[in-house]
Design brief:
Blueprint (H helix, E strand, L loop, with lengths): L12 H18 L13 H10 L8 H8 L3 H12 L3 H13 L41 E6 L3 H13 L6 E6 L4 H12 L2 E6 L2 E5 L3
Parallel strand pairs: 1-2
Antiparallel strand pairs: 2-4, 3-4
Helix pairs in contact: 1-5
Protein backbone atom coordinates (compact mmCIF):
# COMPACT_ATOMS: atom_id res chain seq x y z
CA UNK A 1 0.00 0.00 0.00
CA UNK A 2 1.35 3.43 -0.91
CA UNK A 3 1.82 6.04 1.77
CA UNK A 4 0.41 9.55 1.38
CA UNK A 5 3.94 10.91 0.88
CA UNK A 6 4.42 8.64 -2.16
CA UNK A 7 2.09 10.88 -4.13
CA UNK A 8 4.50 13.76 -3.56
CA UNK A 9 7.72 12.10 -4.76
CA UNK A 10 8.13 14.73 -7.47
CA UNK A 11 7.81 17.65 -5.02
CA UNK A 12 10.81 19.51 -3.62
CA UNK A 13 11.27 18.32 0.01
CA UNK A 14 11.94 21.90 1.11
CA UNK A 15 8.67 23.03 -0.42
CA UNK A 16 6.82 20.19 1.29
CA UNK A 17 8.47 21.12 4.60
CA UNK A 18 7.28 24.72 4.20
CA UNK A 19 3.74 23.52 3.51
CA UNK A 20 3.73 21.28 6.56
CA UNK A 21 4.95 24.15 8.74
CA UNK A 22 2.33 26.45 7.26
CA UNK A 23 -0.46 23.97 8.05
CA UNK A 24 0.81 23.50 11.61
CA UNK A 25 1.10 27.26 12.11
CA UNK A 26 -2.49 27.71 10.92
CA UNK A 27 -3.64 25.07 13.40
CA UNK A 28 -1.75 26.71 16.27
CA UNK A 29 -3.12 30.15 15.40
CA UNK A 30 -6.75 29.31 14.59
CA UNK A 31 -7.70 26.30 16.73
CA UNK A 32 -9.91 27.49 19.58
CA UNK A 33 -10.89 30.62 17.67
CA UNK A 34 -14.38 31.56 16.53
CA UNK A 35 -16.11 30.35 13.36
CA UNK A 36 -16.35 33.18 10.84
CA UNK A 37 -19.97 32.21 10.17
CA UNK A 38 -21.60 31.46 13.51
CA UNK A 39 -18.84 32.18 16.06
CA UNK A 40 -18.78 28.60 17.37
CA UNK A 41 -15.42 27.53 18.79
CA UNK A 42 -13.25 25.89 16.15
CA UNK A 43 -11.42 22.61 16.68
CA UNK A 44 -8.25 21.88 14.71
CA UNK A 45 -10.10 19.57 12.33
CA UNK A 46 -12.55 22.32 11.37
CA UNK A 47 -9.55 24.56 10.67
CA UNK A 48 -8.16 21.85 8.35
CA UNK A 49 -11.55 21.45 6.66
CA UNK A 50 -11.62 25.21 6.11
CA UNK A 51 -8.15 25.20 4.59
CA UNK A 52 -9.13 22.52 2.04
CA UNK A 53 -12.30 24.38 1.05
CA UNK A 54 -10.59 27.74 0.60
CA UNK A 55 -11.45 29.42 3.91
CA UNK A 56 -7.93 29.72 5.27
CA UNK A 57 -8.42 33.44 5.85
CA UNK A 58 -11.70 32.97 7.73
CA UNK A 59 -12.09 29.40 9.05
CA UNK A 60 -15.56 28.04 9.66
CA UNK A 61 -17.15 25.18 11.55
CA UNK A 62 -18.31 22.09 9.69
CA UNK A 63 -21.96 23.19 9.74
CA UNK A 64 -21.18 26.55 8.13
CA UNK A 65 -18.88 24.95 5.55
CA UNK A 66 -21.57 22.42 4.65
CA UNK A 67 -24.21 25.14 4.33
CA UNK A 68 -22.08 27.11 1.85
CA UNK A 69 -21.23 23.97 -0.13
CA UNK A 70 -24.86 22.80 -0.17
CA UNK A 71 -23.78 19.50 1.39
CA UNK A 72 -25.02 17.37 4.27
CA UNK A 73 -22.49 17.93 7.09
CA UNK A 74 -21.70 14.27 7.79
CA UNK A 75 -21.19 13.45 4.10
CA UNK A 76 -18.94 16.49 3.65
CA UNK A 77 -17.06 15.54 6.84
CA UNK A 78 -16.31 12.04 5.53
CA UNK A 79 -15.26 13.31 2.08
CA UNK A 80 -12.97 15.88 3.68
CA UNK A 81 -11.44 13.27 6.00
CA UNK A 82 -10.55 11.12 3.01
CA UNK A 83 -9.04 14.05 1.12
CA UNK A 84 -7.02 15.13 4.14
CA UNK A 85 -5.32 11.73 4.08
CA UNK A 86 -4.15 12.15 0.49
CA UNK A 87 -1.56 14.92 0.96
CA UNK A 88 1.39 14.72 3.33
CA UNK A 89 1.08 18.29 4.60
CA UNK A 90 -2.57 17.62 5.47
CA UNK A 91 -1.76 14.22 7.00
CA UNK A 92 0.65 15.96 9.36
CA UNK A 93 -2.04 18.53 10.21
CA UNK A 94 -4.55 15.76 10.93
CA UNK A 95 -2.11 14.05 13.29
CA UNK A 96 -1.32 17.34 15.04
CA UNK A 97 -5.02 18.13 15.53
CA UNK A 98 -5.67 14.62 16.82
CA UNK A 99 -2.85 14.76 19.34
CA UNK A 100 -4.09 18.15 20.56
CA UNK A 101 -7.43 16.46 21.34
CA UNK A 102 -5.88 13.36 22.93
CA UNK A 103 -6.77 11.11 19.98
CA UNK A 104 -4.39 8.59 18.35
CA UNK A 105 -2.68 10.19 15.31
CA UNK A 106 -4.60 8.08 12.76
CA UNK A 107 -7.88 7.99 14.67
CA UNK A 108 -11.22 9.72 14.18
CA UNK A 109 -11.54 12.72 16.53
CA UNK A 110 -14.47 12.96 18.95
CA UNK A 111 -15.10 16.57 17.90
CA UNK A 112 -16.79 15.26 14.73
CA UNK A 113 -17.22 11.50 15.24
CA UNK A 114 -18.75 9.55 18.10
CA UNK A 115 -16.27 7.48 20.17
CA UNK A 116 -17.56 4.22 18.65
CA UNK A 117 -17.54 5.47 15.05
CA UNK A 118 -16.19 3.06 12.46
CA UNK A 119 -13.19 4.09 10.40
CA UNK A 120 -13.61 6.23 7.33
CA UNK A 121 -13.93 3.89 4.33
CA UNK A 122 -10.53 4.33 2.71
CA UNK A 123 -7.25 3.87 4.61
CA UNK A 124 -4.76 6.66 5.18
CA UNK A 125 -2.81 7.37 2.04
CA UNK A 126 -5.49 6.20 -0.39
CA UNK A 127 -6.12 8.48 -3.31
CA UNK A 128 -9.66 9.41 -4.40
CA UNK A 129 -10.53 8.55 -7.98
CA UNK A 130 -9.98 11.54 -10.26
CA UNK A 131 -13.08 13.38 -11.40
CA UNK A 132 -14.21 12.54 -14.91
CA UNK A 133 -14.29 15.57 -17.18
CA UNK A 134 -15.78 16.44 -20.52
CA UNK A 135 -12.96 16.56 -23.09
CA UNK A 136 -14.64 19.49 -24.87
CA UNK A 137 -13.14 22.83 -23.85
CA UNK A 138 -15.95 25.24 -22.88
CA UNK A 139 -15.99 28.98 -23.40
CA UNK A 140 -14.69 30.71 -20.28
CA UNK A 141 -16.19 33.82 -18.71
CA UNK A 142 -12.91 34.51 -16.92
CA UNK A 143 -9.31 33.27 -17.03
CA UNK A 144 -6.84 33.10 -14.16
CA UNK A 145 -3.20 32.06 -14.37
CA UNK A 146 -2.37 30.93 -10.84
CA UNK A 147 1.20 30.00 -11.72
CA UNK A 148 2.76 27.61 -9.22
CA UNK A 149 0.88 28.64 -6.08
CA UNK A 150 -0.71 25.68 -4.40
CA UNK A 151 -2.45 24.16 -1.42
CA UNK A 152 -4.24 26.74 0.78
CA UNK A 153 -3.29 29.78 -1.32
CA UNK A 154 -4.62 28.21 -4.50
CA UNK A 155 -8.03 27.15 -3.20
CA UNK A 156 -8.46 30.37 -1.19
CA UNK A 157 -8.04 32.50 -4.31
CA UNK A 158 -9.94 29.99 -6.44
CA UNK A 159 -13.00 30.08 -4.17
CA UNK A 160 -13.13 33.88 -4.38
CA UNK A 161 -12.77 33.89 -8.17
CA UNK A 162 -15.43 31.23 -8.71
CA UNK A 163 -17.88 32.99 -6.37
CA UNK A 164 -17.38 36.19 -8.35
CA UNK A 165 -18.86 34.46 -11.43
CA UNK A 166 -22.53 34.12 -12.31
CA UNK A 167 -24.09 30.68 -11.84
CA UNK A 168 -23.20 28.51 -14.83
CA UNK A 169 -20.22 30.65 -15.88
CA UNK A 170 -16.88 28.93 -16.40
CA UNK A 171 -13.46 29.90 -15.04
CA UNK A 172 -10.39 28.85 -17.02
CA UNK A 173 -7.73 28.16 -14.40
CA UNK A 174 -4.10 27.55 -15.26
CA UNK A 175 -2.24 26.03 -12.30
CA UNK A 176 1.22 24.50 -12.59
CA UNK A 177 1.60 23.39 -8.96
CA UNK A 178 2.32 19.61 -8.88
CA UNK A 179 -0.56 19.07 -6.46
CA UNK A 180 -3.14 20.73 -8.72
CA UNK A 181 -4.19 17.53 -10.58
CA UNK A 182 -5.43 16.19 -7.26
CA UNK A 183 -6.39 19.38 -5.43
CA UNK A 184 -8.57 20.97 -8.14
CA UNK A 185 -10.85 17.96 -8.83
CA UNK A 186 -11.12 17.32 -5.07
CA UNK A 187 -12.08 20.95 -4.38
CA UNK A 188 -14.76 20.78 -7.07
CA UNK A 189 -16.18 17.51 -5.70
CA UNK A 190 -16.27 18.88 -2.17
CA UNK A 191 -17.82 22.26 -2.99
CA UNK A 192 -20.27 21.22 -5.73
CA UNK A 193 -18.73 23.32 -8.49
CA UNK A 194 -18.22 21.36 -11.71
CA UNK A 195 -14.90 20.56 -13.32
CA UNK A 196 -16.12 20.43 -16.91
CA UNK A 197 -12.72 19.91 -18.53
CA UNK A 198 -9.24 19.55 -17.22
CA UNK A 199 -5.82 18.49 -18.39
CA UNK A 200 -2.93 19.73 -16.27
CA UNK A 201 -2.17 22.61 -16.08
CA UNK A 202 -5.49 23.86 -17.53
CA UNK A 203 -8.79 23.43 -15.68
CA UNK A 204 -12.28 24.68 -16.60
CA UNK A 205 -14.59 25.08 -13.60
CA UNK A 206 -18.29 25.89 -13.84
CA UNK A 207 -19.85 27.73 -10.93
CA UNK A 208 -22.77 25.83 -9.46
CA UNK A 209 -26.26 27.28 -9.55
Amino acid sequence: MREASDWLDDEDPRRLSRRVERVLTLLRDRSGGACDGCEATLCGHAVLFSLVLGHEDAPRCLSCLAEEAGREPRALRDDLALHLRSRECLVQGWRFANLAEGVPPEGLPRCHWSPDASAVAAPAGSRPAPASTDPAVPEAADTWDAGDIGCGDLVLALRKRVLALEAGDVLHLRATDPGAPEDIPAWCRLTGHRLVAGRHPDYFIERKG
